[in-house]
Amino acid sequence: MSGSIPFYQKHHRHYDRNYRSTEADSKMRHYQSSSRYSAGTSLSTSSRGLKVSSHSGLEENRLSPLPKRSKPSYLALDKENQIIGYVVPIFRGSQEFATGLSDTEEARVRDTAAYMAHRDLFTSGLEMERSEVISRKEAMRESAERISLNKRIHEHEEHFKRMNEDSLMHAPEFVIKPRSHTVWEKQCVRLHCTVSGWPDPRVIWYKNNVAIDPLANPGKFKLESRYNVHSLEINKCDFDDTAQYRVSAMNSQGEQSAFASVVVKRFKGEIDDTLPVPRLGPVSEYGITFQIHIVDTFGVSFGREGETMSLGCTVIIYPALHRYQPEVQWYRDDVLLSPSKWTHMHWSGDRATLTLTHLNKEDEGLYTLRVATKSGYETYSAYVFVKDGDAEVEGAPGAPLDVRCLDANKDYIIVTWKQPAVEGGNAILGYFVDRCEVGTTHWVQCNDTPVKFARFPVTGLVEGRSYIFRVRAVNKTGISHPSRVSEPVAAMDPADRARMRGTSAPWTGQIIVTEEEPAEGIVPGRPRELQVTEATKNYVVLSWKPPGEKGLEGVMYYVEKCVSGTDNWQRVNTEIPVKSPRFALFDLAEGKSYLFRVRCCNSAGVGEPSEPTEAITVGDKLDIPSAPGKVVPTRNTDTSVVVSWEASKDVKDLVGYYIECSIVESDVWEPCNNKPVRATRFICHGLVTGEQYVFRVRAVNAAGLSQFSPISEPVEVKAAIASPAPPYGITVLECVRDAMVLSWKQPTFVGGADITGYFVDYREVVDGVPGKWHEANVKAVSERAYRVSELRENRKYQFQVRAANMAGVGIPSMPSNTFLCEEWTIAVPGPPHDLQVLEVRSDSLVLLWKPPVYQGRDPVNGFYVDIKEGDAPEEDWRGVNTKAAEKTYLKVKDLKEGQTYVLRVRAQNKAGVGKTSDVTEPVLALTKPGTKEIVVEVDDDGVISLNFECSNLTPDSKFVWSKDYEEITDSSRLTIETKGNKSKTVFNSPGEEDIGVYSCLVTHTDGASSSYTLSEEELKRLLEVSHDHKFPIIPLKSDLAVELQEKGRVRFWLQAAQMSSNGKVDYVFNDNVLSQGDVSEMFNSFFMKS
């Protein structure tokens, strides 16, 4: 079939209908229609009652690719211009024409002339039509070629886009964001959004920052995504669906979120006070049980006001699902935190971060990270301390904290705060309260004189406007920094808020729509239950309940006062009555007693007064708390102490306690907390290890700070002793018919004291079912290897190990793998064990191990050490030594700084290389700051010594010297001296027996160790230096001179460059040392001239 296609059509796929595009098909159809039904100018010819006229069924002029000419039409039309057939002209000598037959010659000539005219007209019209058909075909071909070319270009561009995705990638964008809705209960609501982005973004819906899972609540939520339009449908809304919904679109280029609110209203009388029953027990998500591990955690942190602090943890969730996001929440003192300008939260897929943008003392507390899946949750907590910023004036107090607005009316707003822990050089005289209207930066001081009470009603506000507040403390030295500002609050009566309809409620609130028609012309009754809620020497706050009648018109109140013992009632608010059922009175005489009453009023008149209050004496009714009782400090860690105390007695409205500490005999007290704690136990962090501290506590409420408690007994900051953590890594070193030799690794936490021994338990496993545990050893074993006897051959066993120290026996380890008790008969050795890494530096480390218990058929004659990067695959193990090492230690060199490594050891005998040992823990090749090396010294007396210094000692640290990595216990050749953070090993009589590798390890540190190799050449050099120091050569200024004197005397003399008074001179004659006596008299003139 393809062979019959002309060559010029083979390259155009649009000629094949299977590949013809929609545009080409449309062009071809229009062309065929115009060719079939096109018409030119009108021709009217009568033939047998038919009318020939021009007609076009389509608008060919608009569809033709070339300009059209008028063409004759040969359609037969009836009187209503409906097509009923075709008129076919007859040519080539036909004697009948469409007009009929002529009987005369004259008519025949006329018909012949008419025929010729019609023939010429038809021929010219036919030629023109053929020419136009050819032109249209060429135009259609060109148009089809253009369409084909455009299609090929489009396909090429699409291919290029697929091959070059980076050029088109962009972060998601919300073309249409979801819209907030307010609905009634039991209605359905649908949230829509349109998202663009490349690659196609993944869209997730959240309810109050919790991912929505349609499978968790079948039928409640329905998620749809079609053509970049995403929707969330909430079926049969109830009040719990009132929330903030967030839709998050995420791809490889970024993430965008949009928010919408759904408020579900209730009709009056349909409030259900019952709470939804929480779902109990872990629920597997999609049939998967997740395991959560929080690693790389933040520790106890210290900051200062004004600084920025970030807290972060790495979260490992297994199994790892792509883009799965757990529920991540942050708490401070068990209160859930929400994103704000003070706290920013971020989740990167495997790390949760909380950033405190501007630290204040309100930010101090216990921070908890909670990561939850539907399989469970995991938490981690650590304390954050915030110290006061530097005062502008030395001795000024610290800033108050926790400023809040307890009551808000159009007349006043009650502002409360907490006193600071630091009073400065003098006692705090009082506090200034400042206000600022929202939207401005102008702060106005609200009180002219400092108030000592930590509550103050602010008046002079403009009704309906919002304000923020701050507080400053003042003493004789100066004024503190201002506190953190309060949350905005509007100066508006609660009654006005209640009467406002259509006001949006917060997510957890209830929306109740009420409608009452006020009754006109009725004077309100008496207010009820009038009482004094607050009374200080500066102000008194009254509160009451409205009269019992319902639907009264516009009830307002007048407050009256009267001095006790008189009947002279005075109206306090004479100008404007108050609308809210509470009022604050100022300018009362301190020490006087007053009575108060309230009247209701409306447009109908003023009602009867309420019952008066009891006589109230103006003054502070809240007493300062009593001092706390006995304070008991307890050791906790090497930088913290647990402090507990007896609570203050008969205290009202307790805010909390402040704890202070002082180093013994320093008389300088520092605050341990800058935010009051309500408990009677607190952990004081940031203390100096080894120092002795004393503590004191005082209570605080709105009235002020109490006296200090008695000072505690001194306590030394030192880690408390606890039982050790469980050992791990249990393996089998040898197996015979009825016994197994086990080994294990030391616990990661030893409990603050040296481990005194280990206890091993075992149990038999039958058909996968473990039995009861049995003790393998009654007496603790000091080594990390033990032979368990009295086992049964060909039986399976599990083992567990417990470590013990001075505090007791720790919890057992996890049960080991199941091992089969059968005798080993292999020829090669078993695995080495007890691998230990020392002297870690940026380019080297030293690996120690113990030889295998099972030797094989022949004794072990060497060891091979393997190494690989920590995250490298198993096939990347490589040998460190090509020649077998004879000793049980090896120095590994040529490491990359900052790289993590793991190591293992294999033993060999004549039969070959045996099993590999357990792999070490990952080791980071990095020289720690403060690392020292062993230094060799030779003193003036020629004494050779090795010296090592450690800067990070702990109270329990010890220097352990070893030769060839075996602890030195024989003092006949070496003398060890330790003083402070320095230790020295002295060679008593250096000789060839002392050749070897000397190392020093400091216990209870982070691995402080070093080594020194004493070779034969190094020993020879040191002995020469020692001899030179012990027997120094004194340089001479002159040679030995001889002088003959009278009477046969001979004098010998010479002169030395320098010689001390302790110098000794020997006289030698014929290789014999001369001494005092007769012989020396012969040379009594022999002397040294110096």
From TrEMBL:
Keyword Cytoplasm assigned: yes
Ranges for region Disordered: 12-71
Domain Fibronectin type-III, first and last residues per copy: 399-494, 526-620, 627-720, 726-824, 831-930
GO molecular function list: kinase binding
Every Ig-like domain range: 172-263, 278-385, 922-1015
Subcellular location(s) of the protein: Cytoplasm
GO biological process, one term: sarcomere organization
Pfam families attached to this UniProt entry: fn3, I-set
A Gene Ontology cellular-component term: myosin filament
Biased composition (Polar residues): 31-56
Composition bias type Basic and acidic residues, residue spans: 16-28
Protein name: Myomesin 1b
Source organism: Gambusia affinis (Western mosquitofish)
